[in-house]
Amino acid sequence: MKKQVIILILIAGMLAALSGCSSKEEKQATPALPAPAAPQQAGQASLPHAPVPADPLDEKEVVPLKSRMLEHVKAQEFGAIYDEASGGFRKVGAREQFVALWQQQLQQTGAFKSASEISHTVRPTDRFLLFIYSVKYEKMAKNLRLTFGRSTKGGKLELTGINQSDAK
Question: Tens digit of pLDDT for each residue in 98-149?
Fold first, then answer.
């Protein structure tokens, strides 16, 4: 069972890392990091980087998408998540494999109880929106990460990544 969970996490990480992006857009499933600082002159203090602001249209359009994805997880509609995700997301793996991995995860966690957003950032490199939720299941808590970005074809905002990790 533990080996299956590790495989699920690895595949979910791959889906999150590769989904919805072209060759260089998202290489790892890690939180957005600020751009490197400009070289400092002697005597200058290091200042923290300002967060990248989200596009107001993206912020408006992502609200129903986030809600729908959370409802799909709650209702165990893993095929619907796959079907509604970006084309790049679906290219990473087969629908049946995605659904089977989430069903295995469900056996470990138990049913979805509740979720609360704990983080929202904008990735500076491609301006994708990243949301992290603390999710309570019957048997344990997990962190759920949803990534949304605009399609290069048509500009539609869509799910480009989803993965879960152990709550810390």
Answer: 999 999 999 999 999 999 999 999 998 899 999 999 999 999 999 999 999 9
Phi-psi region of 164 (alpha: psi -120 to 50; beta: other; left: phi over 0): beta
Domain positions in the chain are 2-21+54-166
How many whole angstroms separate alpha carbon 74 and alpha carbon 64?
A: 15
Task: Please state, in angstroms and as integers, the Cα–Cα distance from residue 89 to each residue in 33, 47, 113, following that order.
Answer: 22, 36, 26
pTM: 0.70
- 2-21+54-166 maps to CATH 3.40.30.50: no
> Please, are residues 36 and 129 in contact by the beta-carbon 8 Å criterion?
no
| Cα angle 36, 38, 39; round to 5 | 115
Q: Examine the pLDDT at 69 and tell me if it is beyond 50.
A: yes
Residue at 131: amino acid letter:
F
User: What is each CA distance from 31 to 48, 65, 113, 161, in whole angstroms?
Assistant: 16, 20, 25, 12
CB 130 within 8 A of CB 120: yes
Which SS3 state, helix, strand or coil, does residue 13 take? helix
Q: 158: how many CB neighbours lie within 10 A of its CB? A: 20
